[in-house]
């Protein structure tokens, strides 16, 4: 049966090359930790449903940069049609933390007139012994930018669900309050649908869909 969701949110994942963006997305969407080989062109996208409250599902469409971040050549289109983002650094790589500001500036300059709700993510938290960025300073930076901060590990599946779910909840609250609105020609938020009539065959046709918004 067709998946039923209230909204679809499009998210991006940004941060320096090798901080673990692709592995985090794979862990979340495929439930496993695997070495990821980036395709050489284009972007990859993945999707998954999350249940933010009992019976309330949101479909996430998550875009991966497919290696362009190495050359800082991520296009405007990548940012512009997104409502949310995970901004990653690697807790064992101080340089990637220092670059958080530049990533945020880049995103903000590309995303006008929209804005993106970001979550700051300190990734590879399983490598505690090699930590170069304290939780305290990362929380301080996140606070200065009005973001939440979460530490994750794709390898050990720590806080992966939590990171995506918290961001989804924050965006959902902004949609509910009217601070974020669905707009024609913008892919960031789309309204979902539920079947009006559930057929015995469990097939839902287009005419049976009822827009929720
Ligand atoms: P991207 O360039 O940001 O997409 O980074 P990748 O997802 O390709 O990961 C870069 C490297 O970091 C790979 O060698 C991964 O195996 C490793 N990596 C990714 N996530 C984790 C993690 O949670 N813990 C550890 N220890 N290594 C990770
Ligand atoms: Mg990658």
CATH superfamily: P-loop containing nucleotide triphosphate hydrolases
Number of strands: 8
| Bound heterogens, unique | guanosine-5'-diphosphate, magnesium ion
CATH architecture: 3-Layer(aba) Sandwich
The dominant shape is: globular
Give me the strand/helix succession.
EHEEHEHHEHEHEE
Q: How many H/I helical runs? A: 6
Largest sheet: 8 strands, mixed
Question: What portion of residues is helical?
Answer: 25-40%
Strand content: 25-35%
How many structural units, i.e. domains? Answer: 1
Oligomer: single chain
Global Rg: 18 Å
- Point out poorly predicted stretches: 197-213
Termini separation? 22 Å
Mean pLDDT: 86
Q: Say what the CATH topology is.
A: Rossmann fold
Structural class computed from helices and strand pairing: alpha/beta
| CATH class label | Alpha Beta
Short précis:
This protein is of the alpha/beta class and 213 residues long. The protein has helices at residues 21-30, 76-80, 94-98, 100-111, 135-144, 160-176; strands at 5-14, 44-53, 56-64, 84-90, 117-123, 148-152, 189-195, 209-211. Strand 5 (117-123), helix 5 and strand 6 form a beta-alpha-beta unit.
């Amino acid at each position: 049966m067709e998946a039923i969701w209230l909204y679809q949110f499009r998210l991006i994942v940004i941060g320096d090359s090798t901080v673990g963006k692709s592995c985090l997305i794979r862990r979340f969407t495929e439930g496993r930790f695997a070495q990821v080989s980036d395709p050489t062109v284009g972007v990859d996208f993945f999707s998954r449903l999350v249940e933010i409250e009992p019976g309330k599902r949101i479909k996430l469409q998550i875009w991966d940069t497919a290696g362009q971040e190495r050359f800082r050549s991520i296009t405007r289109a990548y940012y512009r049609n997104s409502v949310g983002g995970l901004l990653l650094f690697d807790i064992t790589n101080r340089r990637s933390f220092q670059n958080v500001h530049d990533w945020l500036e880049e995103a903000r300059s590309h995303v006008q007139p929209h804005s993106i709700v970001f979550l700051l993510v300190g990734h590879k938290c399983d490598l505690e012994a090699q930590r170069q960025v304290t939780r305290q300073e990362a929380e301080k930076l996140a606070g200065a930018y009005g973001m939440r901060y979460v530490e994750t590990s794709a390898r050990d599946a720590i806080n992966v669900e939590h990171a995506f779910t918290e961001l989804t909840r924050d965006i959902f609250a902004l949609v509910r309050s009217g601070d974020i609105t669905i707009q024609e020609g913008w892919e960031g938020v789309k309204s979902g649908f539920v079947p009006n009539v559930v057929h015995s065959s469990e097939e839902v046709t287009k005419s049976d869909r009822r827009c929720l918004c």
